[in-house]
């Protein structure tokens, strides 16, 4: 017992490093080609909209403004209020079904061409290449110890990254605080706390995610990579390597027909791996890390041109097309299948219904509240009087004068002012009294209706139900 008590406890070493894959920096090589041109076209389109839309004016105000302080959203000629939250829900449903449809047809096309992570990573990597050079130069620079040249290049690169990140943060906040008010406030250091927080937070988020995390966001953080598999099927277009044509791999020179007779078209140059922004080898088949950017297609096509082989060793294709050797027409025909037709039908129906709803939306909202402190009272003329408060919101871009009328009980009428003017995109509270003879209706609550109609446009009218109390 004493010997056991005096003995030292044995510890079993655990190799924690073996539980995790060590991160390898991906030095993506630049490429050219039709898909690269499409990616950069999407970069220009998305960023022109993002950076430019907040400067566009509409009717003397910012065209697109989500003014949280005023609790109003302005989108060109439309003004949305908190009561219009249903349209936000519809927008989310439309976005979801659009994503389902695009994924069922073409895989992760959104990731490869329009995702903000991809777009800003492309922008920051373009700056990196212009300052530090192409892939071999960047690898060599990072392997060097810190020296004046390396410090200067890194300082320039990160300074430009930070400038882009800060301007992006300012633009983002400019959609919630008018951009023409935000910039003067920044110039005199008069920003509010929430503007300051979100500018710095958004800038830091972009700087970190697009500058450092890059492919790790797509591989480990983005949930889309995890659930995309349930939306894929054998007829979904994906980036595909044709092993029947490419294997066995082997290096050769252009025109080396004798040697090439026993080899596939893949020359094992690994350029498809070098250009991949997530660092995968597409020749290993479909992988969740693939973001469908098609950089490997552009790179492989250029190699095929150099060795004199036909393009398309890596191409957009489907599992069924590769296995059954579909022609392009057959492959396109299989894209129209029950799943995609169902997604497209539902998406089209929701879009059309939303468009109809927006087109017929009356730019007027009214809330009627009865005075709870006094259910009813006897007026000077002996009639019963109820007091109401009408909260009228003019969601139009123009001011309107509204006429108010009441119905529902015989002889019921409004006492005092029967009209009110409300400025554009604003609201007001209108107090009024309604009177009815004591013997009209039943004792207690009686249903009545207020109708509010614009004097200059009879189509702008709202009818609201409330109750009139008879003692």
Name its key features.
Immunoglobulin-like; 5-stranded antiparallel β-sheet
Describe it:
This protein is an alpha+beta fold. The protein has 2 domains: 21-361, no CATH class; 364-470, Immunoglobulins (Immunoglobulin-like). 44% of the residues lie in helices and 19% in strands. The chain has 18 helices and 16 strands. The strands form 5 sheets. Strands 8, 9, 10, 12 and 14 form a 5-stranded antiparallel sheet that branches. Strands 13-11-15-16 form a 4-stranded antiparallel sheet, with no helix packed on it. Strands 3-4-5 form a 3-stranded antiparallel sheet, with no helix packed on it. A hairpin with a 5-residue loop joins strand 9 and strand 10. It is elongated and about 110 Å long. The termini are far apart. Residues 1-12 have low confidence and may be disordered.
The strand count comes to 16
Assess the beta-strand content as a share of residues: 15-25%
Q: Major β-sheet, in short? A: 5 strands, antiparallel
Number of helices: 18
Number of domains: 2
First CA to last CA: what distance?
95 Å
* Low-pLDDT sequence parts: 1-12
Helices and strands in order:
Layout: H1 2-6, H2 34-53, E1 57-58, E2 61-62, E3 64-67, E4 72-75, E5 78-80, H3 85-106, H4 109-113, H5 116-132, H6 135-143, H7 148-173, H8 179-187, H9 193-213, H10 215-221, H11 224-227, E6 238-241, H12 243-246, H13 257-260, H14 271-274, H15 295-307, E7 314-317, H16 319-324, H17 328-335, H18 338-359, E8 364-370, E9 377-378, E10 384-394, E11 400-407, E12 413-415, E13 419-422, E14 426-436, E15 444-454, E16 461-470
Antiparallel strand pairs: 1-2, 3-4, 4-5, 6-7, 8-10, 9-10, 10-14, 11-13, 11-15, 12-14, 15-16
Helix pairs in contact: 2-5, 3-18, 5-7, 5-9, 7-9
């Amino acid at each position: 017992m004493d010997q056991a008590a005096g003995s030292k406890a044995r510890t079993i070493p655990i190799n924690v490093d073996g539980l995790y894959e060590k991160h390898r920096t991906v030095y993506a090589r630049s490429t050219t080609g039709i898909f690269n041109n499409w990616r950069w076209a999407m970069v220009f389109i998305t960023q022109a909209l993002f950076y430019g839309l907040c400067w566009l004016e509409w009717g003397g105000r910012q065209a697109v403004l989500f003014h949280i302080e005023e609790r109003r959203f302005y989108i060109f000629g439309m003004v949305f209020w908190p009561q219009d939250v249903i349209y936000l829900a519809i927008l989310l449903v439309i976005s979801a079904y659009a994503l389902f449809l695009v994924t069922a047809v073409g895989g992760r096309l959104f990731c490869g061409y329009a995702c903000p992570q991809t777009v800003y990573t492309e922008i920051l990597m373009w700056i990196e290449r212009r300052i530090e050079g192409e892939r071999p130069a960047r690898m060599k620079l990072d392997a060097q110890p810190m020296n004046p040249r390396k410090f200067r290049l890194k300082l320039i690169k990160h300074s430009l990254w930070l400038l882009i990140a800060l301007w992006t943060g300012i633009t983002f906040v400019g959609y919630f605080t008018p951009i023409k008010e935000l910039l003067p406030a920044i110039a005199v250091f008069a920003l509010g706390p929430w503007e300051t927080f979100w500018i710095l937070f958004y800038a830091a988020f972009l700087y970190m995610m697009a500058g450092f995390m890059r492919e790790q966001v797509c591989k480990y953080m983005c949930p889309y990579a995890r659930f995309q598999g349930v939306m894929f099927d054998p007829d979904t277009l994906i980036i595909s390597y044709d092993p029947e044509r490419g294997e066995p791999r082997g290096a050769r020179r252009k025109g080396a027909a004798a040697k090439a007779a026993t080899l596939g078209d893949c020359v094992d140059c690994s350029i498809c791996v070098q250009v991949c922004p997530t660092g995968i080898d597409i020749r290993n088949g479909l992988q969740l890390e693939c973001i469908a950017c098609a950089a490997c297609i552009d790179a492989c096509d250029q190699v095929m041109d150099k060795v004199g082989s036909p393009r398309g060793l890596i191409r957009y294709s489907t599992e069924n097309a590769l296995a059954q050797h579909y022609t392009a027409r057959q492959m396109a025909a299989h894209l129209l299948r029950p799943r995609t037709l169902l997604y497209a039908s539902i998406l089209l129906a929701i879009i059309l219904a939303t468009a109809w709803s927006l087109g017929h939306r009356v730019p007027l909202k009214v809330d009627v509240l009865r005075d709870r402190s006094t259910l009813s009272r006897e007026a000077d003329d002996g009639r019963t009087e109820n007091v109401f408060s009408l909260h009228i919101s003019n969601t139009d871009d123009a001011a309107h004068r509204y006429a108010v009328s009441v119905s529902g009980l015989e002889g019921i009428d409004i006492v005092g002012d029967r009209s009110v003017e409300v400025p554009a995109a604003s609201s007001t509270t209108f107090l009024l009294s309604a009177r009815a003879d004591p013997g009209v209706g039943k004792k207690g609550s009686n249903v009545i209706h207020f109708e509010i109609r614009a004097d200059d446009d009879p189509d702008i009218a709202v009818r609201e139900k409330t109750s009139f109390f008879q003692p």
